[in-house]
Design goal:
20 helices; mainly alpha; single chain
């Protein structure tokens, strides 16, 4: 390669570098312009570039609102590159609407990893129990983001629990925090969710003058969300007694929410016999509820009489999975819940429970054992029982 060619190549590389730098600078400038658009509350006198001049002349306030929403969408599409600028805007602005617009842009981003890195800053926006964030909209969107990225540090859970149990809180925020706690699925969230499950229980009709529904009825949505969240936690011993009390409520939505949560927690579906949908009166529901309560009492007693682990919840699930008289859906649910509880150190203690002939249970045990141990236990439907036994024994040998 002669000197002339080298000079040409170097010149081309320099030109391409300058072009890329120029594009980056232009992109950065565009992001700054979009941020400025979000930050500007007062409607400008002149029509901004890209806005419809006709629409601006007809109703500039409406067009400016649309223009800002378009800026928000563009910032969302920019992803991780826009996050630092949006966080800076949220910190600097005194306008809650601007904060909400910026937070909404973050909330709709698909880059969960980038958002998770911003989670500590977002958590700080919720304030403290002594000095909480005052704007319900800000609290609502921040909670949504923390739930989506699965942010459950000790500090985050503590703050979420405080919000769930706060005496002064907007119902829309209570709904959101219930959903987030259910999504995170941490066992320590049982108490806050049980408090939401009883939200409004002491209210009376005279507390809500001029309205057709009592506060208890008005706050039903919070209780429904709390019931659903409890079903996702996998903690039955504390939740089931409270959920069972709701099976005989007059409100069909609350009854059904309790049934759904119990089914998700235990695999026991009260509707299975086909009579529940037609049990409209307390008298009709009574025998169905009694059958469930008797089953639950016997199941808990057996787990307490035969503790298989120091963790009572885990011991309950291990007992259900090992009890050949149990309903298969309850056994499968117990095996999957053992996986969700996440006690990796007890995998070796689960091995004796895996010697089962039922193929659905073999498959569930294979998934649970693999997840907890990090070592694959392979299930194949074509394998004979003897093959399964061999695999479990080999799996056990590797754990020792």
């Amino acid at each position: 390669m002669n000197a002339t060619h080298r000079v040409r190549i170097l010149a081309a590389l320099l030109a391409s570098t300058l072009i890329v730098s120029g594009h980056r600078a232009a992109a950065a400038d565009k992001l700054d312009d979009l941020i400025q658009t979000l930050a500007t509350v007062t409607v400008p006198e002149k029509c901004p570039p890209g806005a419809s001049a006709v629409a601006w002349k007809r109703d500039r306030h409406k067009e400016w609102a649309r223009y800002r929403l378009e800026a928000q969408k563009t910032l969302t599409a920019a992803g991780a590159k826009a996050i630092p600028r949006l966080l800076t805007l949220i910190k600097k602005t005194n306008h809650n609407l601007v904060k909400c617009l910026a937070l909404a842009a973050l909330d709709q981003m698909s880059d969960r990893a980038a958002l998770r890195r911003a989670a500590p800053t977002l958590l700080g926006l919720l304030g403290t129990r002594e000095k909480p964030q005052k704007h319900a909209g800000v609290r609502y969107v921040v909670l949504s983001i923390l739930g989506k990225v699965g942010y459950q540090t000790d500090a985050a859970l503590k703050r979420l629990h405080e919000i769930a149990q706060a005496k002064e809180e907007e119902d829309i925020v209570r709904l959101q925090v219930a959903d987030v706690l259910g999504r995170l699925g941490h066992r320590t969230s049982v108490a806050p969710l049980l408090s939401l499950l009883a939200y409004g229980a002491g209210d009376k009709a005279e507390d809500n003058p001029g309205h057709a529904e009592t506060p208890y009825e008005a706050r039903k949505a919070v209780r429904l969300h709390a019931a659903r969240a409890l079903g996702r936690l996998g903690v039955a011993l504390e939740s089931i007694p409270r959920l069972a009390l709701k099976l005989d409520l007059e409100d069909i939505n609350e009854r059904n929410a309790a049934v759904d949560a119990i089914t998700e927690l235990l695999g026991y579906d009260i509707r299975e016999g086909g009579q529940w949908p037609f049990a409209r009166t307390s008298t009709q529901r009574a025998p169905i509820i009694k059958t469930f309560n008797d089953w639950w009492a016997a199941t808990v007693k057996k787990a307490r009489d035969n503790p298989l682990d120091k963790d009572a919840e885990l011991s309950l699930r291990m007992n259900i999975s090992a009890d050949k008289k149990q309903l298969l859906p309850a056994q499968l649910n117990a095996i999957r819940t053992i996986q969700r509880l996440g006690h990796k150190e007890i995998v070796i203690n689960l091995v004796p429970l895996m010697f089962v002939r039922n193929r659905e249970m073999q498959k569930a045990w294979a998934e649970t054992a693999t997840k907890l141990s990090g070592r694959e236990l392979v299930y194949r439907p074509e394998d004979k029982f003897e093959d399964w036994i061999t695999k479990v024994n080999e799996f056990s040998d590797h754990l020792k």
